[in-house]
Amino acid sequence: MVSVLRTDSLTKRYGALLVTDAVSLDIGEGELHAIIGPNGAGKTTLINQLSGELAPNSGSVWFDGADVSALTIHERAKRGLLRSYQITSIFEDFSVLENATFAALGSRQHAFRFWAPMLAGQEARRFAEEALEATGLTHRLSVAAGDLGYGERRQLELAMSLAAGPKFLLLDEPMAGMSVQESAAVIALLQRLKRQYTILLVEHDMDAVFALADRISVLVYGKILFTGTPDEIRNHPEVRAVYLGEEETGAEA
Amino acid sequence: MSAFLSVKSLQASYGHAQALFDISFEVGAGEVVTLLGRNGMGRSTTVKCLFGMLPVSSGSVSVGGERVDHLPSHRIARKGLALVPEGRQVFPNLTVEENLVATARDDKRSRGKAWDLDRVYVFFPRLKERRGNLGSQLSGGEQQMLAIGRALMTNPRLLVLDEATEGLAPVIRNEIWRALAELKQDGLSQIVIDKNVKALMGLADRHFVIEKGCVVWQGTSNDLRGQPEIVHQYLGV
Amino acid sequence: MTSIFSRPSTWVPLLILLLLAAVPFVAQATGQQFYVAFFARIIIYAIAACALNIALGYGGMVSFGHSLFLGLGAYVVGLASFHEVGSGWAHLALCLGVCGFVALVTGAISLRTTGIAFIMITLAFAQMGYFLFVSLKNYGGDDGMSIAKNSRFGPVDLSSATSVYVAAFIVLVLSIWWLAKLRVAPFGMVIRGAKQNARRVNAAGIPVLRYQLLAYVMSGMLCGVAGLLLANLNAFASPSTLSWAVSGELIVIVVIGGLGSVFGPLLGAIVFLGLEEVLKTWTDHWMVIFGPLIVIVALLGKSGIVGLLQRFDPRRKPATQPAATTAPAAAAGTANTVKGAV
Amino acid sequence: ATIGLMAPLSGPQAIVGQDQVDGFMLAVEQLGGKLGGQPATVLKEDDQLKPEIGGQITRKFIDKDKVDAIVGLSFSNVLMASLPRIVESGTVAIATNAGPSPLAGAGCKANVFSTAWQNDGAAEAMGKFAQDKGLKKVYLMAPNYQAGKDMLTGFKRYFKGQIIDEVYTQVNQPDYSAELAQLQSAKPDAVFVFYPGGMGVNFIKQMAQAGLMAKVPLYSVFTVDGTTLPGLRDAAVGSVSGAMWDAALDTPENKKFVADFERKFKRTPSEYAATAYDAANILNIALGKAKPGDSRALAAAVKAAGSEVKSVRGPFAFNNNNLPVQNYYAFETVKSGGSVVGKLVGTPLAKHSDVYRAQCALK
Amino acid sequence: MNGTIVFAQLLNGLQYGVLLFLLAAGLTLVFGIMSFVNLAHGSLYMMGAYFAASAFQFTGSFGLAVLAAMGGSLLLGLALEFIAVARLYRRDHLDHVLATFGLVLFFNELVRIVWGSQPVFLQVPEFLGGAIDIAGFTYPAYRFAIIVVGLLVAIGSWLLINKTRVGMLIRAGAVNPAMVAALGVNIRLLNAMLFAVGAMLAGLAGAMAGPILSVQSGMGESVLITTLVVIVIGGIGSVTGAFYAALIVGIVDTMGRVFLPFMLRQVTERSFADAAGPALASMLVYLLMAVVLAWRPQGLFPANR
Ligand SMILES: Nc1ncnc2c1ncn2[C@@H]1O[C@H](COP(=O)(O)OP(=O)(O)OP(=O)(O)O)[C@@H](O)[C@H]1O
Ligand SMILES: Nc1ncnc2c1ncn2[C@@H]1O[C@H](COP(=O)(O)OP(=O)(O)OP(=O)(O)O)[C@@H](O)[C@H]1O
Ligand SMILES: [Mg+2]
Ligand SMILES: [Mg+2]
Question: Where are the membrane-spanning stretches (chain E) (predicted)?
Fold first, then answer.
């Protein structure tokens, strides 16, 4: 498997607190890699460092064979390394379609264009519509994003990441706040997308993780405790103790 | 059983868009009920109306037999209601400890052991570790714990949890379910909104399914178990 | 067709533009030349407000220092005239160059900050400009400087009120037209997006600071053009144009009109300056009425006059206000890095 | 006759404008509501001390209201901004508050008059006064703007002793303790300052509180006058101001003016009221002679009227540059009964002309 | 230029700094903690000075005048809060700027209607009328009274914000009032109280400054901007920051005013130095702010919250 994203003992600390502790990851092309771990283990912090939002104290990030550690968020985004946010982060005054088109445009070309309407850009618009279709928001195209319910916001958040046409998707709890039905839809969607994109998924919804992940890394106190297949994880005693708990071995509800 | 909270034919709108059409349910003293439904059906909107955060356009909300639907939020809360809101909403510019104590209250009417800083820290040791951090510096799950702890610190008689287990690790989530069960033993009434129907069936006495702003089904956990088609139809499972 | 004329928020401003186009002719016919100068001033302020609207309305950058660019534009003409340069093209090039450069430098520094700090740092730059011109003794200091050589564009000399009026009117129409396009063009969407959530714009692959900076520079340059016209109209350049109160007035104009709307600046300028004129005829203490009116505008919210007109628009939702709750967005930790509006 | 009266009527300097309006209207009232025998319409406009607004009002007066004369014209920055249109139209204008040096010199205009002063005049008088007193070392202070610089230049024109230091402070500076410490350490024979409006109140109050009034004699211009005395009171006692007018001037015209003004407006007039009062009386004479609508004739009549009018300030006439020839007095601020008033202590410059008039091409 | 005068000027800078802090204190509460950009703070300060002057005229007692100023501006603050400000907390800064800009115009004119355009008289109280001699320079005793009051206010507001639950609630309410209310706190009342206290401090500052400054319409603006500069340099929301920043601004401004022209004269032509020195000195505070913000956008001593 060709490695797409690799980190080299990535370390981030806040004062005395080591949030990511020499994390080395290697994610192959087309893989769906999940990261699980207790709250506050450093998952979001890790994603922030991968996306470029946070600078690590030491260590490096390699994407597509190049060292991207020094690149900014938007430069990484342009190369196809995109993220969604754990805390919903959409443009509330824009319509759903505008939100998605914006995302589609941003990653593909510069926006120093001052005359023709953004929505007239055929290419970006097509990507946006596809992404909205995939996330099931087609019926809400012209609604202002601020008027969406919480769950729909999450859907839009995901649609924006997809519309950007990523090579690699960093998904931070995409299912949080979604009802079972919507989660199931997103799981199905990710199933379909799986081989097209390489995906790093952070999620506490174990149904989703076990259903989707090729490999899972368990992050505890900033360190990778264990990396393995879903089955290995499910039965790993230590993982069960620190994270899964006793009953949590598979489908709930 | 005399209802502690009773909601009758509630209607509410966001601007011109009506979100609630007909919501009625009751929560008895010490009872745990759930509001079930898919995304965008109006569960959180109902919660906002309970707390006076959204004006009620018609219908009524009563606490202990007293109409509260036109009272300001803080007066309603003072009747013994506490909220763990959707999306956490911890105070980003306060430290963990300040978040907990700022709105803390000792309500003589609440039953069971009183909640104080120590008890919350025992419950969520993680918060104790992070006590000096600002709310904005917490991880998603830590914020969720903080939101729960903050609500408990008001020593409520009715705890309203809107997606309170969202973003929590499974172990913690199980802890929460256990704790809610314990609180129920103490006699604390609860309204729980969550997607984990299985856990809810274990915890709650009664369920209300909300669809497009109306209560379309209600019944006990046993009723729900007996009618899987309901779960399928309204919750998509 | 029908759509435009069934929407008051569109046809009312267009009608006003049409009426403004008629002003010089009517004034000529009735011999009331004064009104040409009067409306020229309104139009020039509308241009300045359009300029501010790019930064403030679209980009959410609450600049409390746009008087700096208005003043710089005016002084370019003043200084050029002082040194016997009368070519309008030279004035324009200098004006765009100077304002662009100053906006680039001050913007680059100011945009490091957000929120209140941004408001204050832009104010600081304008104040520095004010004190600079006050102390330029050779150029009149606080007395300001008369302009002997107005900008001359080929055969057109901006020495009469009418010629300034025509020039300003053309600039205004072009600005409005462009602003309407810009609003939904990619660039406009980026800066409007940055106003709501700068972090997200970045994550979408767009280096948001560059766009904000460019918006600030364009805003400064257009404001400079307004200053150039103002200097020609008054045949005078004065440091008082750079005072903080002028920056405040420009903000008020933009907001009265309707923040971030296309026609807002024009409507705002007409109402603000017109009202000032009307109230002054009633009483010396007109500010006792004027002040509270501004407060009321602020209380009513930012949709301004345009928002008011939109209420009469059929089949159109009233401008989305931050309704009862923006709850999930206000959620903890969403460090909302909107310039000027945290 | 229609007169356009433009003055700052809002903002911190509104008192200056208010005094001008009141002074002018008092004269018109005394003249039975007429100027030159014709019923007078006085249009009053607030320039807000903004040059740009001043320019607009001037246009309005000339183009819309077709006034016979414009009076007031606010501070020199507003005056200068209004000038282009006034010169272009030839409308008679009488400034009652300013006489900037460009207008006194090469830039003088046949239709633009001032019943106030050339900016340097009062300062020159104080320079002469200090010189006559035989002072050796003087310390100068003024705000850092045009008028401040003019004033100190004027002082130096007549004072030949040593200038220890010339300090320019920030415009609208609130706190002067640092400057006062410098002043104290310089040990001058006297300090000469120009701090109009609130700045003067700040400065003098603080100087008095630091106990310096007793140690360093204070000479000033446009600092202690009718507009600031109510806020200063005892703090200003002992200071000497140079001015072309004060309520204390003992002439019959002035007595009547001050008494009538106080009766009508319940406050003591300032020099700004006096200049506007004179302007009205000059216009009255001129309008009685010139045909309405002929601004050239009116300008000539105004010039002639300057020599005829019984000015409240004593001797008065227009110079070739249309600025006043007048006395400059020194007044000491003293306590008299319960109130604080000016007391005439000298007339350093009698029938004084400014230096710029040589550069003026007018006769 | 000898050592004593440098020392004397340092002292002047310090005391100007404390005066600035006194002005800034009320604003820090409202602007820093509640995040309400209150340009009308200067107006409240002006009103305080007028209240004091009027009370002084009637009673002849400076103590009563100060009380009247504080009481009057407290009530005025409550009224303003009730009528306008309360509706604006949750809006963004732009609306604050706008509304309070309108209030500034209103109050300036109101004062002229009620008290006239001329400055009104307010005197240093008899017992503080003297001057104290330090190192050969006389200092008005009244300035020391200002320093004492300034320090008391500093300590008081620091305690209020950082050490009380009210402080926490207000900080929380500035970000998410709906949530604070839903947790059972009457945040509206709390905000009203704090705004009124801020207004009261403005009034106190006005009364204290009245005897040394000209009490007149518009007196608030010139100090308001400097005060805002102080708060921004210090770090918004931090009382300690505002205090240090006030001292820094006071010293920089004073030293710049006095020594900058002097130093320029040493290195350049006198005429140029005389022109550039004061110009530079008047820009110094703004320059300082620009440099500080460019270097540390969050201010020098940001509130750690
Ligand atoms: N700016 C900061 N200053 C101090 N500590 C911080 C800061 N940001 C994050 N932390 C801490 O770092 C730890 C890791 O946070 P992170 O958000 O990465 O956790 P997470 O694994 O994503 O958790 P969750 O599953 O709950 O989202 C947390 O304990 C958090 O409190
Ligand atoms: N602030 C708002 N402004 C306008 N409309 C809103 C707002 N919040 C929610 N809505 C609308 O109200 C409806 C009900 O939303 P609500 O948040 O109550 O749903 P919910 O049942 O809690 O679902 P979710 O799982 O999405 O939280 C949705 O259609 C949503 O679009
Ligand atoms: Mg996380
Ligand atoms: Mg919800």
Answer: 16-37, 66-85, 97-115, 141-161, 193-213, 225-252, 272-295
Structural tokens at position A105? 């445009």
* Range(s) within chain A of domains with CATH label 3.40.50.300: 1-80+168-178+194-253
Neighbours of ion ligand 4 (CB under 5 A): A 150; B 44, 86
Of the residues B11, B13, B14, which should be mutated to test ligand 2's pocket, given the most ligand atoms within 8 Å of the CB? Answer: B14
Q: Which of A20, A43, A172 to mutate to test the pocket of ligand 1 (most atoms within 8 A of CB)?
A: A43
Q: How many CB atoms lie within 10 A of CB D32?
A: 10
Contact C298, E95 (CB under 8 A): yes
- Interface touch C197/A90, C-beta < 8 Å: yes
Long-range contacts of C281-290 (CB under 8 A, 24+ apart): C284/D9, C284/D10, C284/D44, C284/D46, C285/D10, C285/E109, C285/E112, C285/E113, C286/D10, C286/D46, C286/E109, C287/D10, C287/E105, C287/E106, C287/E108, C287/E109, C288/E106, C288/E109, C288/E110, C288/E113, C290/E102, C290/E105, C290/E106
- Residue partners of E164: CB distance under 8 A and separation at least 6: none
> pLDDT tens string for chain A (253 positions)?
688 999 999 999 998 889 999 999 999 998 999 999 998 899 999 999 999 999 999 999 999 989 999 999 889 988 889 888 766 789 999 999 999 999 999 888 888 888 888 888 888 899 999 999 888 889 899 999 988 877 788 889 889 988 988 889 999 888 887 778 778 888 888 888 888 889 999 999 888 999 999 999 999 999 999 999 999 999 899 888 888 876 544 434 3
Q: Count of CB atoms within 10 A of residue A134's CB?
A: 21
CATH class as words, domain A1-80+168-178+194-253: alpha beta
CATH number for the domain whose boundaries are B1-80+158-164+189-237 = 3.40.50.300
- Contact residues, chain C, for B143 at CB < 8 Å: 332-333
To test the contact with chain D by mutation, choose from C38, C142, C273 the residue with the greatest count of D C-beta atoms within 10 A, namely C142
pTM across the whole model: 0.89
Going along chain C from its start, the domains and CATH numbers come out as 4-313 (1.10.3470)
Q: Which ligand 1 atom sits closest to the C-alpha of B126?
A: 29
CA of C336 to the centre of ligand 3 (A): 18
The alpha carbon of E231 is separated from its chain's Cα centroid by a whole number of angstroms, namely 9
Phi and psi for B50 in degrees, rounded to 5? -55, -40
